[in-house]
C-alpha cells in the first residue's frame, strides 16, 4: 500500500507508483516500492530531494547486483539513476564516471586510455555501489584509487566528498543519510592498453572458472571474516575466507526452497529459478547459524537486505 501520493513533488523524469522491484535485481526477487523515481538529470534529482517532505524515506538503488529486496517490498521512494548518470571521461590518469556507469565499462574505457582500473572489470554492478561498498578484488579496492565522490544531499545540494569523508572500511563507507551518489573521480596508475586488456581477460577467465557466473546470484554473500585494514587490505595473519568456513560447516550446496548455496562457490547464494526473498535470506541465516556453531565465527552479510517481509 503506497502512502505518499499527495505530497510528492512534480518531476521531469519518471515516477512510478507501486513499482515491482524483482526485475531490477540480479536475484529477481522482491516486492514493490511505494514509488520508483528515475530522474531525468541532476537538476531533476536536486529539485525532487529538495521538495520532498522529510518524512518520506528514500533509498538509492543501483543495478541491484548486491541486493535482496524482501517480498513485502519497500515503504519508500526508491531512486534509480539511468542514462543521464552513466557518462565516463578520462583526462590523463584521472577517470570520472557517473554513478550509473557499470564497473566493467569504466575498467575497459580506462584501459583504452592506458589507466589501470582493471580490478573493476570483474566486479558486478555500477560505480555508485562500488563506492558505497568499497568494492575490490585482486588486492585492489575502490578506496585505493578514489579521489572524490559527488553526491546530492537529502536537502538537494551538490557536495563533493573526499576519501576521508567516506571513511572507507572493508566493504563499507559512510554516506550522509538520504544522500544520492551521482559520480566518482578516480586516479589510476599508467599501463599499456594491450597489457591491461589482456589482464582483464585473464581475470574474467579465472572468475568464470571459479564462480557461478551463469546463475542468478548477487556476488559474494558474506564478507570475509575480520582481519582487514580500513581500506580493505587483508591481514595475512587473519586472512580467513568466507567460502572456507562455509565449506567447513558443511553448507556448500545447501538449499531452502528455490535458494541454494552454490556447489561451485559456497559463498554465492543463488536463485535456482523459484526462490523467494524469504528463501534466500532464510538460507543465508541458516548458513550463518551453522558456521557459528561449528567455528565460533559470525559471518556478516555482504549482500544488502532491505524492505519488509511479506505479510501473511
From the spread of the alpha carbons, the general shape counts as globular
Structural class: alpha+beta
Helix and strand pattern: EEHEEEEEHHEEHEEHEHEHEEEHE
Oligomer: single chain
Major beta sheet summary: 5 strands, antiparallel
Question: How far is the first residue's CA from the last residue's CA?
Answer: 15 Å
Overall structural domain count: 3
Spatial order of the strands forming the largest sheet: 6-7-12-10-11
Q: Beta fraction of the residues?
A: 15-25%
Provide the low-confidence segments as ranges: 228-238
Distinct helical segment count: 8
Look at the structure and give the CATH class of the largest domain.
Answer: Alpha Beta
Tally of DSSP β-strands: 17
Determine the mean pLDDT: 93
CATH topology of the largest domain: Uridine Diphospho-n-acetylenolpyruvylglucosamine Reductase, domain 3
CATH architecture of the largest domain: 2-Layer Sandwich
Fraction of residues in H or I helices: 25-40%
Radius of gyration: 20 Å
Key traits:
Uridine Diphospho-n-acetylenolpyruvylglucosamine Reductase, domain 3; 25% helix; Uridine Diphospho-n-acetylenolpyruvylglucosamine Reductase, domain 2; Uridine Diphospho-n-acetylenolpyruvylglucosamine Reductase, domain 1; 3 domains; 312 residues; alpha+beta
Describe this structure as you would to a colleague.
25% of the residues lie in helices and 25% in strands. With 312 residues, the protein is α+β, with helices and mostly antiparallel strands. The chain has 3 domains: 14-82, Uridine Diphospho-n-acetylenolpyruvylglucosamine Reductase, domain 2 (2-Layer Sandwich); 84-195, 2-Layer Sandwich (Uridine Diphospho-n-acetylenolpyruvylglucosamine Reductase, domain 3), CATH 3.30.465.10; 218-306, UDP-N-acetylenolpyruvoylglucosamine reductase, C-terminal domain (Uridine Diphospho-n-acetylenolpyruvylglucosamine Reductase, domain 1, Alpha-Beta Complex). The strands form 5 sheets. It has a 5-stranded antiparallel sheet with strand order 6-7-12-10-11. A 4-stranded mixed sheet has the order 1-2-5-3, with no helix packed on it. A hairpin with a 6-residue loop joins β15 and β16 (268-271). The chain has helices spanning 42-51, 103-112, 127-132, 142-145, 163-166, 193-210, 242-248, 277-295, and strands spanning 14-20, 32-38, 58-61, 67-69, 74-80, 88-91, 94-98, 136-137, 140-141, 146-152, 158-161, 180-187, 216-220, 255-256, 259-261, 268-271, 304-306. The chain has 8 helices and 17 strands.
Amino acid at each position: 500500500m503506497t502512502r505518499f501520493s499527495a505530497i510528492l513533488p512534480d518531476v521531469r523524469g519518471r515516477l512510478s507508483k507501486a513499482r515491482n522491484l524483482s526485475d531490477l535485481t540480479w536475484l529477481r526477487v522482491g516486492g514493490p516500492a511505494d514509488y520508483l523515481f528515475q530522474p531525468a538529470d541532476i537538476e531533476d534529482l536536486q529539485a525532487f530531494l529538495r521538495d520532498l517532505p522529510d518524512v518520506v524515506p528514500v533509498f538509492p538503488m543501483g543495478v541491484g547486483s548486491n541486493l535482496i529486496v524482501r517480498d513485502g517490498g519497500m515503504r519508500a521512494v526508491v531512486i534509480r539513476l539511468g542514462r543521464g548518470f552513466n557518462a565516463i571521461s578520462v583526462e590523463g590518469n584521472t577517470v570520472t564516471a557517473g554513478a550509473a556507469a557499470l564497473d566493467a565499462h569504466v575498467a575497459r574505457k580506462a584501459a583504452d586510455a592506458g589507466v589501470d582500473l582493471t580490478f573493476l572489470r570483474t566486479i558486478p554492478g555500477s560505480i555508485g555501489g562500488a563506492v558505497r561498498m568499497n568494492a575490490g578484488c585482486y588486492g585492489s579496492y575502490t578506496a585505493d584509487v578514489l579521489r572524490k565522490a559527488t553526491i546530492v544531499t537529502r536537502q538537494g545540494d551538490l557536495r563533493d566528498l573526499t576519501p576521508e569523508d567516506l571513511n572507507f572500511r572493508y566493504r563499507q563507507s559512510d554516506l550522509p543519510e538520504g544522500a544520492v551518489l551521482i559520480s566518482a573521480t578516480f586516479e589510476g596508475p599508467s599501463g599499456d592498453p594491450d597489457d591491461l586488456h589482456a589482464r582483464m581477460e585473464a581475470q574474467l577467465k579465472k572468475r568464470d572458472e571459479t564462480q557461478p557466473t551463469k546463475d542468478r546470484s548477487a556476488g559474494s554473500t558474506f564478507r570475509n571474516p575480520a582481519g582487514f585494514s580500513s581500506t580493505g587490505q587483508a591481514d595475512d595473519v587473519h586472512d580467513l575466507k568466507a567460502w572456507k568456513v562455509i565449506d567447513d560447516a558443511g553448507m556448500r550446496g545447501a538449499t531452502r526452497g528455490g535458494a541454494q548455496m552454490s556447489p561451485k562457490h559456497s559463498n554465492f547464494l543463488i536463485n535456482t529459478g523459484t526462490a523467494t526473498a524469504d528463501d534466500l535470506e532464510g538460507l543465508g541465516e541458516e548458513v550463518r547459524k551453522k558456521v557459528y556453531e561449528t567455528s565460533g565465527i559470525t559471518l556478516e552479510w555482504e549482500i544488502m537486505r532491505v524492505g519488509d517481509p511479506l505479510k501473511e
